[in-house]
Amino acid sequence: MKHQNPSRRFLLRPVAIAALALVAAGALINTARADETKPAAKSPAPAPKKLTGAELYAVNCNRCHPERYPTEFNSAQWQTIMLHMRVRANLPAKQAKEILKYMKEEAGN
Asked: In the prediction, which pLDDT does 3 show?
């Protein structure tokens, strides 16, 4: 059996330790870089702005016909019109209520 040079055996240990240290340092650097590239935790989205009756009217009603002015009808007539148009336009109840409120307030009876 061949004997190794004792000075060579002692030289291999520090080289092996240095190699392990480099591998470990590389792993730490890659982990740190991976953390940097991850998107930051998203904050909750702001609540959508609540549209006014006038804005809802402009968005929903003007899709199909020209703008009608609130003063063209009285409150009772707007009530009947909104019952009909809510079904035709497939408006959610809350939006229909806001539009009707706007129309009645501006109707000027």
From this structure: 57
96-108: pLDDT as tens digits: 999 999 999 888 7
Burial 34-63, CB ≥16 within 10 A → b, else e = eeeeeeeeeeeeeeeeeeebeebbeebbee
Give the pair of three-digit tokens for residue 42: 């998203």
Q: Which residues of the chain have pLDDT under 70?
A: 1-41, 109
pLDDT score at 98: 94
The Cα–Cα gap between 93 and 99 comes to: 10
- Domains of the chain, residue spans: 53-107
Q: What is the DSSP string of the chain?
A: -PPPPHHHHHHHHHHHHHHHHHHHHHHHHHHHHHHHHSPPPPPPPPPPPPPPHHHHHHHHGGGTS----GGGS-HHHHHHHHHHHHHHHT--HHHHHHHHHHHHHHH--
